[in-house]
Every structure is written in structure tokens, then in C-alpha cells.
Design brief:
Layout: H1 2-8, H2 18-26, H3 30-54, H4 61-84, H5 86-93, H6 99-117, H7 122-141, H8 147-159
Length: 160
Amino acid sequence: MDKLKRVLSGRDAEEPSGLAEVIDATSLGWGTRVKGFIACFAIGCLCSILGSCLLWIPKKGLVLFAVFYTLGNIASIGSTMFLMGPVKQLKRMFEPTRLIATIVMLLCLILTLCSAFWWRKTGLALLFCILQVFAMAWYSISFIPYARDAVKKCVSVCLS
């Protein structure tokens, strides 16, 4: 019966290889994936909120905000890897329909950290944080069918 299941599911009739056993043993169950998603997303939100609270600290507040806000966004993106798996998430991130959104989003994340640590330009860090908001929103709605078209139409109606 097991051989029949393997043949019908597309697996070879032979016994599974060592690699297949490792992949099956390291796959997460759906409940574990959801728990990982919730935990990672909650950490991302916590980092973003903490960054917003640290914004008001004199002298170093803006740099701390930029760092924690960026770490929060990275954790939020990482949380979706629990649901889809890292390979599938990376493939979907770089599909032609969302390639530009992904590149802009990642570039904003990197430039925010560069402006906070290396260039030490707080105004530039704040600008890149604002751009992160728009880049993350545009990236996120790229996963919803026709959402970007609706946003474009809404903005064009509001501007004309």
C-alpha cells in the first residue's frame, strides 16, 4: 500500500533516498508554521513599536528608530517565510510582477541602515524609513490580485 501511495503521489516506487528523508524530517507542520509566523510577526511589530518609542530619545533616538523599524520590517518579511517556506518565498519575491517592488523595498532597508550607521545622517535615515513604509505597502499589495491596479486608479482619481 505504501508503494502505491508513493507512485500515485509522484514519488518513485523505490525507497526514499537519504535526502528525501532529511527533507521530510525537517519540514514543519502547519501548526508549527502558523506559530512561527505569529511569533516572528509579533517580534517585527514589537521592534517597530519600540523604534517609535525610542524616536523621542535625544541625540540617538532617530538612529535607534531607524534600526528598530528596519529590524521590525525584516522580521515581518521573515515571518511569511514560515507560511510558504524560504525557497518559495524568495522565488515569489523575485517574480517579474513584484521584482521592482522587492528591489526597492530591500534597497530602502539597506539604505536606512547605511544612513544610520555609516553615514550618520539622521534626516536621511528618516527619509528612508518613510520610503520603507511606501515600499513595504507596495510590496505587500503585490500579493493581492488587482490591488496595485486599484491603488493606481484611486491615486489617479484623487490627483486629477
